[in-house]
Design brief:
Strand order of the largest sheet: 2-8-7-4-5
CATH architecture of the largest domain: Sandwich
Largest sheet: 5 strands, mixed
CATH class of the largest domain: Mainly Beta
Oligomer: single chain
Number of strands: 8
CATH superfamily of the largest domain: Immunoglobulins
Strand content: 15-25%
Helix content: 25-40%
Number of helices: 4
Shape: flat
CATH topology of the largest domain: Immunoglobulin-like
């Protein structure tokens, strides 16, 4: 009887092992299938994103070509204007370094074979454009065919090489159009409120490092020491000094603690 029970138990264990093995294979198959499906989903998303990026790149390339075409057309137009016969405008200065926030005079000498009709200057810095009608800035001895215009302006904004542009647009009585341009570097000058001392902060090559000399005449008292105690011993005995020393020693290690006398000696060095 016991032998039959042992045999049945042994067979039951073997059947359980087979079942556990089959169950493990089933779960493993499900896991592999899940990984495969997620991989396919991930690859599908990557493929979609890749197509979107390719489309964006194609649109950007198209826009870039349009910008290049517009730029090329603008350059050709400017070249044709510069080569137009019948007029010349000389600008002084037309290059060099210009100080930020300092007014500077610009002279425009013009000659028109057919007489001017329109003449304007456009100054451009990092803050924007300033348009000036040069016909309102002509000197007294100027006429329809030749003369000069005077303008005083100052640039603002950021400093840097080629950060300041000047463009002149003009036309004459015969309907011809003209274009002239200049370019300048902008730098930060010293200002009188910086004082007559050596500046230790970082300054680029576009910053002027000259000195200003300012003469100042003082009157009255500049500074006066207030007397609170007549002697060191009187100061040491003061309650306020004792509280200051106690507050200082509260967060100091033993070897760093001080007394009232040392506190006063250090404070009055």
């Amino acid at each position: 009887m016991s032998k039959n029970i042992f045999v049945k138990t042994l067979k039951g264990k073997k059947n359980l092992q087979k079942f556990n093995k089959s169950l493990s294979l089933l779960f493993f198959s499900i896991f592999i299938t899940y990984i495969a499906l997620n991989s396919l989903f991930f690859i599908s998303n990557l493929d979609i994103e890749n197509k979107i990026l390719k489309q964006d790149l194609a649109e950007a390339h198209y826009e870039l070509n349009n910008v290049k075409s517009d730029f090329s057309n603008s350059r050709e137009k400017i070249k044709s204007l510069e080569k137009s016969p019948g007029a010349n405008i000389t600008i002084n200065p037309c290059s060099g370094s210009i100080a930020l926030y300092k007014s500077k005079e610009y002279k425009f000498y013009y000659e028109f074979k057919h007489g001017y009709k329109e003449m304007k200057a456009v100054f451009t810095d990092s803050t924007g454009n300033l348009e000036i009608n040069l016909l309102k800035r002509l000197s007294e001895d100027s006429n329809l065919y030749s003369g000069e215009a005077l303008v005083q302006v100052f640039p603002e904004g950021e400093q840097g090489e080629r950060f300041f542009d000047l463009e002149v647009y003009a036309s004459d009585q015969a309907g011809n159009e003209y274009y002239f341009s200049c370019n300048y570097d902008l730098f930060s000058p010293n200002f009188s409120n910086e004082g007559d001392y050596l500046r230790k902060h970082i300054r680029s090559a576009l910053v002027e490092d000259s000195y200003y000399k300012v003469q100042v005449i003082h009157s009255g008292k500049v500074w006066e020491q207030g007397g609170y105690w007549d002697s060191l011993d009187e100061c040491i005995k003061d309650t306020w000094i004792k509280n200051r020393v106690e507050h200082f020693n509260s967060d100091q290690p033993k070897e760093e603690k001080i007394d009232e006398r040392l506190y006063e000696l250090q404070k009055n060095r």
